[in-house]
Write a structure and sequence with these properties.
The protein is an alpha/beta fold. Helix content is about 30%, strand content about 20%. The strands form four sheets. A six-stranded mixed sheet has the order 9-8-10-14-15-16, with helices on both faces. It has a five-stranded mixed sheet with strand order 3-2-1-4-7. The chain has a three-stranded antiparallel sheet with strand order 11-12-13, with no helix packed on it. The radius of gyration is 20 Å and the shape is globular.
């Protein structure tokens, strides 16, 4: 692993070492909830400041958890309850604006072009890019609408050596190993609309043996990623057994670090139950050298994954850097009627330096 040495060093990492690695125009944020206030550590290439927000830890975490519950509530994102859904929808919008005030309003004056967030264990899977800023005139915008938002597993991972994408040419996509989800087939084959030479491994071909032989700039895996088993502490992904049609095997997640390093890796979790993908998985792959990792931290509808993939590859093929293609894909989804609620698009995170 290219970054193993950095993991075993015992000396402290100096902030100045990391600041020189922060891109110009980027503000890095790390949050620490205290008993009576939230501490916001803000770092740029030339500055280090600590701002605070006056909210108790218990109250903040209650709001965060309520926001996440409502985000995945059909009454909120689909209006499933009809008129009875209105209170839940209103509460969700209120929380979204309140959480912006707590997390980001104190650093409003430090923004430039990019926001790089270290979520930490406290705010695992919280979509900072989806909360809303309201100005004095009442205009409301999602954070990702006025600024790019990316994530890193930790501040020290700025030092990791990673494979970076210069110009995407070769795409490998694997998915639907059991052959039971035909919509994934359509999504993956559609990549050839943007990259005619893309290698598409579907059904019985979506095997571990074929992934080991794959080489390219981008690897996408659309399958089930499960967690919580003692035999696989990082969880496992489902791939084809390579034998009979419909046969599948569990591959421990850490086996992905044995593959040749892909500059861009997109993991699309299709499992609707369990804890799925997280910052921990991003850390493991960044240690292994992945430069840009895209993953969904909860499962939305298949429609959302299809739209994200279509928009992402459209912008990637047009020459945008992976982080920029990601942001534009989210902006496209926000403007697309069927997937414009944060439940659909906020699930997609970019771990990397935009």
């Amino acid at each position: 692993y290219p970054n193993y040495e950095l993991l075993v060093r015992s000396e402290a990492v100096k902030l100045a070492e990391l600041q020189s690695l922060i891109p110009r125009g980027t503000l890095v944020l790390r949050f620490l909830p205290g008993s009576d206030r939230l501490y916001i550590f803000a770092v740029t290439r030339s500055k280090f400041e600590v701002r605070t927000s006056a909210i108790q830890q218990t109250a903040l975490m209650n709001q965060v958890n309520e926001y996440l519950r409502l985000l995945n509530n059909p009454n909120v994102y689909a209006g499933a309850g009809g008129a009875a859904s209105l209170p839940a929808m209103t509460r969700f919008g209120t929380l979204s604006a309140q959480l912006y005030e707590h997390f980001l309003r104190p650093v409003d004056g430090l923004y430039e072009r990019n926001l790089l967030i270290i979520p930490g264990d406290e705010f695992e899977k919280f979509p900072f890019h989806a909360i809303e800023r309201q100005d004095r005139r009442g205009n409301v915008q999602y954070v990702v609408e006025f600024m790019s938002v990316d994530y890193l597993p930790s501040l020290s991972t700025l030092k990791y050596r990673t494979a970076m994408s210069v110009r995407t040419k070769d795409v490998i996509a694997a998915g639907n190993p059991t052959g039971k989800n035909w919509s994934i087939d359509y999504e993956l084959r559609d990549i050839r609309s943007f990259y005619k030479g893309a290698t598409i491994l579907i059904g019985i071909e979506a095997s571990w043996q074929n992934l080991q032989k794959a080489r390219g700039d981008v690897l996408q895996i659309s399958s089930d990623f499960s967690r919580g088993r003692m035999s696989h502490p990082l969880g496992a992904l489902i791939l084809s057994g390579g034998g009979t049609e419909g046969g599948s095997v569990e591959i421990p997640f850490e086996k992905l670090t044995e593959l040749p390093v892909f500059p861009v890796l997109y993991l699309s979790n299709q499992l609707s139950e369990g804890s799925g993908l997280s910052t921990t998985h991003a850390l493991v792959l960044r240690i292994a050298g992945t430069g840009d990792l895209f993953l969904n931290v909860w499962y939305g509808e298949r429609k959302a994954a299809k739209f994200f993939s279509e928009y992402f590859y459209t912008h990637l093929a047009n020459g945008l850097a992976p982080g920029d293609a990601y942001r534009q894909a989210l902006l496209n989804m926000i403007r697309t009627k069927d997937v414009n609620h944060p439940h659909a698009w906020a699930q997609f995170f970019h771990f990397g330096i935009g």
